[in-house]
Design brief:
The chain is an alpha/beta fold and 288 residues long. It has one domain: Alpha-Beta Barrel (TIM Barrel). Helix content is 37%, strand content 17%. It contains ten helices and twelve strands. The protein has an eight-stranded parallel sheet with strand order 1-12-11-8-7-6-5-2. A four-stranded antiparallel sheet has the order 3-4-10-9, with no helix packed on it. Helix 5 crosses helix 6 and helix 7 crosses helix 9. It starts with a strand and ends with a helix.
Length: 288
Amino acid sequence: MLLNASGCLDALLAPDVARALDGFVTKTITPLPREGNAPPRIAETAHGMLNAIGLANPGRERFLADHLPRLRELGVPLWISVGGFCAEDYAETCVALDDVAAIELNLSCPNVDEAAGSAAEIVAACRAATPLPLYAKLSAAHPDLAEVARAVATAGADGLSLINTLRGVALDPLTLEPVLARASGGLSGPSLKPIALAAVHACYAATKLPIVGMGGVTTGCDALELIACGARHVALGTILFSDPEAPARIRDELARAAADVGVVRPDDGYARAHVTEKTLEIGSKVAA
């Protein structure tokens, strides 16, 4: 399944791009409207981009009354990204949602403490609030991401979204001052891919939960690598800003990349990057 990364596509402005995906993930919704950070809040880097949007969104009430009905008209399965500043914020939004494909809990924005206990508390509150599928979106910035993954799995998460952006700074070469108004922002794009692969690999091994893999996907080969590390689904992010045709292109490239490594379908490459106990056993016998 191909999705977009939250915040990287406005489906109402680009409906044809959204319909080219297997599901659309909304921008993160918070209880109250947020204007976001002061500009400039986007900066290009050599291998990606920084953004410091600051969870700008219309707020829960307006989203439910206005945006969600229009998104339903697209005919695309909807994943709703939910944010907040405490477990109650998340749970109240989850209660208000129905008839959507999944809820993605943004547990990795700068305003949320991503200690394993805090993430688990939020997931548990949301699990009690809704029967809908819950995907916990995590950041690779945590020193033990697998620990967080196990904690949210125990708390009731149905899946994981990996990874969110990592904090970075870009400087103006003429002034040596930060380009972004708030100095730092979230790094996305090709430079994030090796980190995303490591995160998906570690969290698959720790939980075996379904994973939406994202971070630096620009080609079908990138998508196949995430699948090999343990991602059931793949999300496109920064590439959508420069290439609106990316969903169709990457889907075609993914099929060819799978054939090149000798698998009939991309799904047949699922978790191929993991060394199995059988492989270890065979290796031990050969060594002996």
